[in-house]
Amino acid sequence: MENTRIQLEQNDIPTHWYNVAADLTNPPAPPLGPDGKPVTPEGMSAIFPGAILEQEMSTQRWIPIPEEVREIYRLWRPAPLCRAVRLEQALGTPAKIYFKYEGVSPAGSHKPNSAVPQAYYNKQAGIKRLTTETGAGQWGSSIALAGQMFGLPVRVYMVKVSYEQKPYRRLMMQTWGAEVFASPTDMTNAGRAALAADPHNQGSLGLAISEAVEEAASRPDTNYTLGSVLNHVLLHQTVIGLEAKKQFDKIGEYPDVVVGPCGGGSSFGGIAFPFLADKAAGDKRAEKLRCVAVEPTSCPTLTKGAYAYDYGDASGYTPIMKMYTLGHDFMPPGIHAGGLRYHGASPLVSQLHHEGLVEAVAVPQLATFDAGVQFARAEGIIPAPESCHAIRVAIDEALKAKATGEPKVILFNLTGHGHFDMSSYERYFSGKLEDYDYPEEAVSASLEHLPKVG
Ligand SMILES: *Cc1c(COP(=O)(O)O)cnc(C)c1O
Q1: Mean of the per-residue pLDDT values for the chain?
Q2: Which UniProt keyword terms apply here (predicted)?
Q3: Alpha-helix residue ranges (DSSP H) falling in 76-111
Q4: Using one digit for the tens of pLDDT, what is the confidence trace for 121-147?
Q5: Gap from CA of 368 to ligand 1 centroid (Å)
Q6: Whose CA is nearest to atom 4 of ligand 1?
Q7: Contact present, 134 and 140 (Cβ < 8 Å)
Q8: Among candidates 102, 2, 6, 41, which has minimal Cα distance to 412?
Q9: d(Cα 183, Cα 218) in Å, to the nearest integer?
Q10: DSSP three-state, residue 173
């Protein structure tokens, strides 16, 4: 019987993260503060520890992973690389389809890969408490887990509508010892202002960010954590691609195409960047490698957004960053059930896309769930709706290979399981989901509100 699950030993957990900034042809554009000048580390030191700020701005290629972090990674890493043989058979494709399965972490997704080092560096810096925001709860549960591992209390501002509609992620956070509040709260100026304007405010991610940042900025013992977008988060996530490369080495294969879902871009960067390192180093195997970031047609940041400076949050509270954006006041349509609804994308992924080193594809919602269900029926694992975006494109690539008869090697990132997302599947099965193309006019209208630079 052929081996379809390629395992590594715990000693194979990477000892260094890979920093793609070392291999960029053009230097990354710095984030800018309200004065239009590049943000300094001192300007951010009220909410982030020094080690994280150093990583955020570093151009050093390899950054050591602290032993304490590797010891916690051992709880679920190395994550398996699996070959989806039953899916290949169902598709009748000559392609080999591999997936890196990040759903094996305690929180069920790739997010703890960055939550653990973020908690570690804060603990090292003498910080006593962490804050964050969460929408559906994937990041909140990851930082709750990581905070618990290092004895750091975590306070999560959870968007009120999710707090009420998604009790199980909230209970996970509470099980790992975090305090969870429905945002807007009456504990911050941002929350009180929102409640004064509308006592029934249902909350938004932008507002929850404002609350979490305000608390961290106003308390010297407290820092803020963010689960995607920023350079240090993508750096931490490169353990995904670094392990995958070792696993491919073990079986003497190399992917032709690497596919990942893209919201803020952390898991996509995490799987793709280590392969792009081979390309940058002139590795023959990577000459024709394609990396494809997949997003929903209802939130088409990389495919329809502008490459411009914009705020990271809805309320214009954060520094501005150069990235693909739909405008910080973008509102995802209510019909959208598949996650990946952030208005921007990681500046690193954005730059690589702008320079033609990574591709982007937008896929409609129904075809995305079709792919997820087809995968679940062939391989057993029920994917997170976000991951279904990558599965859609992996299947499409496998079908193209079938048409041309090429035995392509496809790798996709199965970023998480969907056990807490069954209500999205329920909406799909009961016919309540529709396809939705975010209209060009709405994109241009939002882009008029971009901050003016220079
Ligand atoms: C958060 C999340 C994503 C999207 O975030 P990225 O930063 O783009 O990776 C994708 N898949 C899962 C399972 C997630 O929890």
Answers
A1: 95
A2: Amino-acid biosynthesis, Aromatic amino acid biosynthesis, Lyase, Pyridoxal phosphate, Tryptophan biosynthesis
A3: 85-91
A4: 999 999 999 999 998 899 999 999 999
A5: 15
A6: 263
A7: yes
A8: 102
A9: 18
A10: helix
